[in-house]
Amino acid sequence: MKLDSRFSGYDARALRKDIISGLIVGIVAIPLGMAFAIASGVKPEYGLYTVIVAGILISLFGGSKFQIGGPTGAFVPILFAIVMQYGYESLLTAGFLAGILLVLMGLFKVGGLIRFIPRPVTIGFTTGIAVTIASGQIANFLGLRNLEKHEKFLPNMKEIGQHLGTTSVYSVLTAGICLAVLLLMPKVLPKFPPSLVGLLVSTVAATVFFPDRVATIGSAYGAISSSLPGLHLPDLSFDNIRRLFGPACIIAMLGGIESLLSAVVADGMAGTRHNSNKELVGQGIANLVTPLFGGIPATGAIARTATNIKNGAASPLSGVIHGVVVLLVLMIFAPYASQIPLASMAPILMMVAWNMSERKEFAHILGMKNAESVVLVCTFLLTVLLDLTTAVEIGLLLSAAVFIKNMSGFLVTAKGLPDPADKRVSAGMVHEQHNCPQISIYTIEGALFFGVAEMFEQSIKAELRSKPKVLILRMSNVPYMDTTAESYFAGVVKSFTKHGGRVLISEIQNQPLEMLRKTGLEAFIGPEYFFSKTGEAITLALTKLNETKCAGCRHFAFSECEQLAQTRRKELAVPAANSSLQQL
Hints:
It is built from 25 helices and 8 strands. The protein has helices at residues 12-39, 44-61, 76-85, 88-107, 119-136, 138-142, 153-162, 169-188, 194-209, 217-221, 238-270, 276-289, 302-310, 317-337, 342-356, 359-367, 371-385, 388-408, 453-463, 483-498, 510-519, 521-525, 534-541, 547-551, 561-583; strands spanning 69-70, 299-300, 412-418, 425-426, 439-445, 470-477, 502-506, 530-531. The strands form 2 sheets. A 6-stranded mixed sheet has the order 4-3-5-6-7-8. The N and C termini lie far apart (97 Å).
């Protein structure tokens, strides 16, 4: 869709709607932006910079009318791992490289391909991310002190276990107040943003009743600046690009998946239709610019996008306004934000984790108790115990293996003969007393690809040991053939013709036919031996028979067989009679 088309029919009434929705979403985004930054291992203001810069650019250049962009929970584990392993400056470089990759993905129109990532993989790593986020907030919820941060889940859990004795009752009270507000607000005052109210109420309670007893943003990260930082170019040296290219690919893939999922949700809610490739370009531009201001990677935020639509957004301008609102709040209220307790942020992130956990879908797939359940569990465990990169790679490999195994079960190569009742070729017509020794007709059903190529070859070759004169391959139900299958297919054809046989192809679909043309196998077989109807192939096959064998045949596999046998017997009888006369 063109950018201007998203503003078609725009008027003052639509502007009022955008201002209201932008204001509300901006207020919602403030605590989340800081919380996601803290959980990612960086200063809270970097999350606000991301909300401002990326939020505005994604709305301006994206392909969705109501998309709200910014930092999200899905990025937390991968960003935290990058910060732990490489440092904050390298995170900016990885985000910048991810922006380039996203732009390229959009330009090369791969937006539609992301939807082919299997559901068990996305549910597995999404639930794994949720567990990682929630577990990462246990220390702040309990107010634990002197913990050493680790990149992996189990060492972090061990660290928490070893420091449970440092639990602060004041932190637990503060977190409990915030959590209570988060749970009650949607029921009592559904139009107010629960996270912001919870943050304010718990901060005021901690400040009034037990000042200086809980860790705050200011005590942990220093005072929050009230302005955007100056432009800062990331380190794009060759060595830095090489070592950060892998993390950048994961950021780009995850950002692409989440942004397009968010766009799909928006389409369902608003009745619009997004442009997948343009959305990826918009996401890429945002992630190219955001690191220049110190911001972390961003993507489409499903919850904030839904909030935007529910509050009456009329155009992408609401997303721009949401970024401006956060900028104004940063400039005016930054000093006060430093007083927010870390214990107040923990329940907000835990609720985000709970909401994004896909627990019902997880339980549904797990309850199926099949191969996809294994993919789900493996992806989930690897996300939690190792890292998202490994989880996605192994999850995709397992999904591919499951797909190949399942597809191989759909390949059918059945020998058949025409049914006298309706003349249709049927596998049920072939048995020991009813079989043509000279013509073999095989019906092939299912895609011919690398996973079933050898199985196809073996099933055909096993039958051809009897050396029939003609092989007819019916291919009306073969929708696809890849190069590996074509190689095995060619092996069958060439082996058969080498011993004097003739291969006839009937009812072949366009894609397999085009594959045979490109490889030259159509020319090898002969274009005249390709038929649109199997009956035509059988008619030609009957002319290629060794009629001497037909004379003594009692199978009568085809309706023409009896006449052929009688004719041949008469022809053989005449020379025999002449020979007898000569002897007289």
